[in-house]
Write a structure and sequence with these properties.
single chain, alpha/beta, Rossmann fold, Rna Polymerase Sigma Factor, Chain: A, 3 domains, seven-stranded parallel sheet, four-stranded mixed sheet, 14 helices, 11 strands
């Protein structure tokens, strides 16, 4: 029985993980869980799975806490559990930069990390990989694109790889003329044609910032140079990624679009188990099509690639200001087109710091959030 600690259990990835556990109760048990603010759903899951270690990371009033179940409050309580709890694998499904410290602390313990928090590698890939190499902990990607590559490369030599090819659904606006982008509303943006995700990731998917972050993530996960990492729009989301080898062969990992399959693989690695969690009927499959990503239409994808190559503190700054821009859009304070404008302008005015340590990354992340929120009109 594998003991799992799930961070962000009430979000979309967390809920998919819960479905995996429900399907295979003889294989997995949930020993700890965190949520940001959804205390009711957390309590419901705690009772269903008898989860003893519970954390809410947002501030709650005493009258909002239950009397019969012990819940710990705050980020420090979460980090304490990550450092000291008894688990076999931690699945980090926290959204955004808030997940970085938990990833670092998990790997420091030598515990295996199932990673759905791409910001951990975007902000601190050089530190994450160093710690992983020192402790021998396994870093198991949960994003469907990176799980696909991980599965393909499982027994392959990276020196034989010519290109990694990530796929993107293209979001809801892939067929919309850029001239019409000024009319895009929040409701339009949240209508993702393929995946059911939280608001932040859904908006990032529409701007293709999400795919740009995944390019940076792929660089750190697989040690592949940016010039050999590509991305294409694949609206059907059946092929989750491809690997082109130096002899010209292209390997693809395919399935109906569901996060439960990559989660299952991360939890059972290095083995596979028999499961009915997903079924893909090739005879009923739609035509598979591919489109080039227009950097004119999706400038944040281009920016992320440039920032990834530059490295240093710039990925942290880009990610932080994007988080604020997306929240401002959700709050109705800026338009859809203001998101890339704000992110690009802020990054262009920022100075880089080469090889930042963890404290510098966390401090600059916090400062960027504050400045970007208070002075956002300077950047649009």
């Amino acid at each position: 029985m594998k003991k799992i600690f799930i961070l962000g259990i009430t979000g979309s990835i967390g809920q998919s993980t819960v479905e995996v556990v429900r399907t295979h109760p003889d294989k997995f048990t949930i020993v700890g869980a965190s949520a940001h603010r959804n205390i009711n759903k957390l309590l419901k899951l705690a009772k269903e799975f008898q989860i003893k270690n519970l954390v809410i990371t947002s501030k709650l009033k005493k009258n909002e806490l239950p009397n019969d179940i012990k819940i710990h409050i705050g980020e420090e309580a979460l980090i304490d559990f990550v450092r000291n709890s008894d688990y076999d694998i931690l699945l980090n499904a926290i959204t955004g930069s808030a997940g970085l410290k938990s990833s670092i602390e998990t790997l420091k313990r030598g515990k295996n990390l199932a990673l759905a928090n791409k910001e951990s590698l975007v902000m601190a890939g050089h530190l994450v990989k160093k710690i992983q190499s020192e402790t021998g902990a396994k870093l198991l990607p949960v994003d469907s694109e990176h799980s696909a590559i991980f599965q393909i490369l499982h027994n392959e030599n990276n020196k034989e790889v010519n290109n990694l090819i990530l796929t993107a659904s293209g979001g809801p606006f892939k067929n919309l003329d850029k001239k019409e982008f000024s009319k895009i509303t929040l409701a339009d943006t949240l209508k993702h044609p393929t995946w059911k995700m939280g608001s932040k990731i859904t908006i990032d998917s529409s701007t293709l910032m999400n795919k740009g972050l995944e390019v940076i993530e792929a660089h750190w996960l697989y040690g592949i140079d940016y010039d050999h990492i590509q991305a294409v729009i694949h609206p059907q989301s059946i092929i989750h990624s491809m690997v082109e080898f130096i002899d010209g062969s292209i390997f693809a990992q395919m399935s109906e679009p569901t996060m439960r399959l990559p989660i299952l693989y991360a939890l059972t690695y290095p083995k596979r188990i028999k499961s009915n969690i997903v079924s893909t009927n090739m005879l009923k499959m739609r035509d598979l099509t591919f489109m080039e990503i227009s950097t004119d239409k999706y400038p944040l994808f281009k920016l992320a690639n440039e920032v990834g190559k530059a490295g240093g503190i710039l990925p942290t700054i880009m990610n932080a200001v994007n988080e604020i821009a997306v929240q401002l859009f959700i709050d109705g304070k800026i338009t859809y087109l203001d998101i890339p404008k704000m992110v690009i302008n802020y990054v262009e005015q920022s100075e880089n710091i080469v090889n930042p340590d963890l404290n510098s990354i966390l401090e600059i992340n916090t400062l960027t959030h504050k400045e970007a929120y208070l002075k956002f009109r300077r950047f649009i």
